Amino acid sequence: MLNHTPAILTLKECQQLLKVGRNTMLHLIHSGQIDAFKIGNRWKITKAAVIEYLKYVN
């Protein structure tokens, strides 16, 4: 599933991958369920953080 996914995702790419809206994605980040970082004013999420989240919820 994640074979062709880039190592670092934008917020929008992560939303599309997880099939969630912007507010849900921001909630996951702010609550610490998904590790993310900012470059300037843009959120970036690592592929590893998404994999960890998917292990946690499944």
Name its key features:
58 residues, alpha+beta, Arc Repressor Mutant, subunit A
Care to describe what's here?
It is a single chain. The protein has helices spanning 11-18, 22-30, 47-57; strands spanning 8-10, 37-39, 42-46. It is of the alpha+beta class and 58 residues long. It has a single domain (8-57), classed as Arc Repressor Mutant, subunit A (Orthogonal Bundle), CATH 1.10.10. Strands 1-3-2 form a 3-stranded antiparallel beta sheet. The protein starts with 7 loop residues before the first strand and ends with a helix. The mean pLDDT is 95.
Let me know the average pLDDT. 95
N-end to C-end Cα span: 15 Å
CATH architecture: Orthogonal Bundle
- Following the backbone from N to C, one meets helices and strands in this order, namely EHHEEH
Q: In one word, what is the shape?
A: globular
Domain tally: 1
Secondary-structure content class: alpha+beta
In the CATH hierarchy, the third-tier topology is known as: Arc Repressor Mutant, subunit A
Oligomeric state of the chains present here: single chain
The portion of residues assigned to helices is 40-55%
Number of helices: 3
Unreliable stretches? none
Main beta-sheet strand count, sense and barrel state: 3 strands, antiparallel
Proportion in β-strands: 15-25%
The CATH class name reads Mainly Alpha
How many β-strand runs? 3
Report strand order across the widest sheet.
Answer: 1-3-2
Radius of gyration, Cα only, in angstroms?
Answer: 10 Å
